[in-house]
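Incident log, support desk, overnight shift.

02:14 A customer reports that sequence design results differ from what the structure should imply. Their input is reproduced verbatim below. On-call engineer (initials T.W.) acknowledged and began investigating.
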């Protein structure tokens, strides 16, 4: 039992943009040390430990073993995997006094692969899944949103090693199911969505997205159960056809955007074709055509074209293109034309004429221009209203907070780093790997983002710093004595209790209790004590009941214990 709440001092939320960030600051749970760096104060730390305990229980249930590796990683391991240069500036690189390269681990595929290649030599020792809960560091260019996108953060990361693909897929499925249970037990409403593997790599990945209007990630989902990050979703796109006819050039003075073109021709934007000029990772000039009402997705485009960049005005001019009026008919010879696969069945295009102030209508692939078979690519961002790839119904749009992600890595790291074992036929084979991450500190803020109202946080019991706050309106005499007695009885019943014994006005205590958001409040005043009752408030629902003083602890235990994770 904690008998004081003096550490509950309010703080200025300052530049905080998200409600969850503001509330965690105001409620005295976190403090900013520098951009993207936060201290976790006692209340937040209690919640983080509960989240970690849920994770540990679920990992133990599927046979994963906890351990710990250094946060500082030798650079040679990252050179072995090929990620030293590829990871980008988010990797905090450094040298020790002897000039040896190191980095602060943003993730630990290299370290665990190195460990296992030196320890496990036979198929008889497999499968093995190892995990840790540890601080990570990524030098984010724009750390923001509090714990959502910090530079230093707490993460659970696990790595599995199997003898074959089937075994790796079974382990992956076990981890994925465990992650769903972890979200549920932490009080999160989360969707498993198909995701891009990003810097981690691998062929298959699923993110668990906590639904929130303020979430950074955009996703699409369907009533049939399909869900995907818009960076990974391949959805059915309804393309409106232009009119049939002979190729014709239309004078469109000053019409250099899709919106202007659609208005000028009195057609929907989906009846036009948008052109994006870029330079591929190989340095080749490329123009990509997408439906006029959709956007090119940078992540998908990087898969198609490598580390591309959109052309500057100078590059557009250099390659003989006309900004705002680019089209597939009559492109300069050294510029390659690509198109999103959603346009593959489209017969009539409305496009730029490669001439200032002119567009073409009735442009027909195969007749007026060519898109070769290997130049149809998936580069469009899926959006609300597109067709579900599973059942064909219109997709819903939503925003989410990524709290965890699972990956099938295959042999990406084991082959690169020479991590092999002897199979039952006596042959050396690379481990089949998976990796699995949960943002522990991010999960804390995601819970708050889903559980708050205009007065403050509404913690679910499973991760609340304390389950009960006792609020004596008089901190001396009989009221205080009763408060201490009920607190002791509640603790004896197995509950987590804090007592607000500050000499503050009742209104201040009530406001702070709602701000802190402990699941149950027990309010004790002189009148109630004399009548033998206490008022018990459910913070989430606002429901209030009068309970006999000698029954309060039992009443609370019956309400709280079934809600625990």
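02:41 Re-run completed on a clean worker. Output:
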């Amino acid at each position: 039992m904690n008998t004081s709440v003096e550490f509950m001092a309010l703080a200025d939320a300052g530049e905080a943009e998200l409600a969850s960030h503001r509330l965690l600051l105001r409620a005295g749970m976190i403090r900013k040390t520098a951009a993207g760096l936060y201290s976790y104060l006692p209340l937040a730390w209690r919640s983080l430990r509960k989240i970690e305990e849920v994770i540990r229980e679920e990992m133990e249930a599927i046979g994963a073993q906890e351990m710990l590796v250094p946060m500082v990683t030798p650079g040679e391991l990252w050179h072995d995997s090929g990620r030293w240069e590829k990871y980008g500036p988010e990797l905090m690189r450094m040298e020790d006094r002897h000039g040896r390269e190191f980095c602060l681990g943003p993730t630990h595929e290299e370290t665990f692969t190195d460990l296992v290649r030196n320890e496990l030599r036979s198929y008889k020792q497999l499968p093995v899944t190892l995990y840790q809960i540890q601080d990570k560091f990524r030098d984010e260019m724009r750390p923001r949103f509090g714990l959502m996108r910090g530079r230093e953060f707490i993460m659970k990361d696990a790595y599995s090693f199997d003898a074959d693909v089937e075994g790796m897929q079974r382990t992956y499925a076990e981890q994925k199911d465990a992650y769903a249970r972890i979200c549920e037990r932490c009080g999160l409403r989360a969707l498993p969505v198909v995701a891009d593997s990003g810097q981690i790599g691998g062929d298959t990945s699923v993110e668990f997205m906590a639904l929130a209007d303020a979430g950074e990630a955009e996703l699409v989902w369907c009533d049939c159960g399909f869900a995907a990050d818009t960076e990974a979703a391949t959805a059915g796109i309804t393309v409106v056809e232009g009119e049939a006819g002979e190729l014709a050039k239309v004078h469109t003075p000053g019409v250099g955007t899709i919106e202007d073109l659609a208005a000028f021709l009195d057609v929907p934007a989906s009846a036009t074709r948008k052109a994006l000029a870029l330079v591929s990772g190989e340095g080749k000039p490329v123009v990509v055509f997408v439906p006029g009402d959709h956007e090119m997705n940078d992540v998908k485009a990087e898969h198609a074209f490598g580390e591309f960049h959109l052309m500057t005005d100078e590059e557009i001019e250099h390659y003989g293109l006309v900004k705002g009026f680019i089209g597939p008919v009559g492109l300069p010879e050294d510029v390659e034309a690509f198109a999103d696969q959603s346009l593959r069945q489209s017969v009539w295009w409305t496009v730029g004429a490669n001439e200032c102030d002119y567009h073409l209508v009735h442009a027909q692939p195969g007749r007026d221009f060519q898109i070769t078979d290997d130049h149809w690519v998936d580069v469009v961002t899926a959006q609300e209203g597109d067709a579900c790839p599973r059942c064909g119904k219109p997709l819903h749009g939503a925003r989410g907070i990524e709290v965890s992600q699972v990956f099938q890595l295959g042999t990406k790291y084991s082959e690169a780093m020479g991590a092999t074992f002897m199979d039952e036929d006596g042959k050396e084979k690379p481990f089949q790997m998976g990796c699995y991450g949960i943002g522990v500190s991010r999960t804390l803020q995601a819970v708050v983002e889903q559980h708050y109202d205009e007065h403050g946080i509404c913690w679910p019991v499973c991760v609340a710093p304390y389950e009960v706050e006792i609020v004596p309106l008089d901190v001396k005499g009989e009221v205080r004595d009763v408060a201490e007695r009920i607190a002791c009885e509640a603790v004896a019943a197995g509950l987590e209790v804090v007592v607000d014994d500050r000499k503050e006005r009742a209104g201040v205590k009530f406001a702070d209790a709602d701000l802190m958001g402990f699941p149950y409040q027990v309010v004790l005043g002189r009148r109630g004590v004399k009548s033998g009752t206490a008022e018990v408030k459910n913070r989430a629902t606002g429901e209030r009941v009068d309970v006999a003083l000698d029954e309060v602890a039992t009443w609370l235990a019956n309400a709280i214990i079934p809600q625990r994770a």
